[in-house]
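Section 5.1 Outputs to date
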Amino acid sequence: MKTNSRLGAFTLVELLVVIGIIATLIAILIPTLSRARDQAMSTKCKSNLRQIYMALTMYANDNKGWIVEPNANWSPTYTGSPRWFQFIYKDGPTTGANPFQAPTNYMNDGQALYCPREQRVLSSIIQVSYGLNDNMFFTNGVPCRAVRSDSYGRPYYNLQKTRKPTEMFLAADSNGPTKAYQIRGTSNYAYEPDYRHDTRTALGGSSASATANMLYHDGHVEPVTYTYIRTIPGYDFGHLPWYFENP
């Protein structure tokens, strides 16, 4: 008795149908997974900024409310011009013959200084992912009411004197690498935030919908669009959300 050896085998048409279904499912899944990954990165970035807020707050509490400017010129006391984050992260000292090193570490291993959407690494301590709002110290050369200077002319900002903490920028995704330690509302776009949180835009892009994660003085973080920064009052660095006017 003859048996059919082809019994139970797939035909070529059936195999092509199965392959087509698998390819369709993959095409549907890949963008979804990509969006989920980007969303996870944006969430991690927001968490980083909240950790930075906690570190700055603890530093301020230990120093009567005062924090240093983004690029603190501590000459002739120290070499290397320490940035703001080197006052809260102990394992990132400056260079030179007499380097500055923070006496207290408020940032654990320092990984929160780096956004997961960037390629910067911890060994490059000058080029972190976030910048401090430089305009809250001075605007057009005029210090705000929460600022004082020491005998060397180095300005300090008092976090406890911010009048509208829910409306004023404290820090944000920074545009780097050379200006990584500060952000500004200014027509010099090298200092404005980095709109890296947009899956349709390359890192550092500037599409209208691209967003930068902004940390406010009350500790909340929200994505702010390129359009908002460039067109809504607030891009004028003499006013909120960059700066509040003196009474």
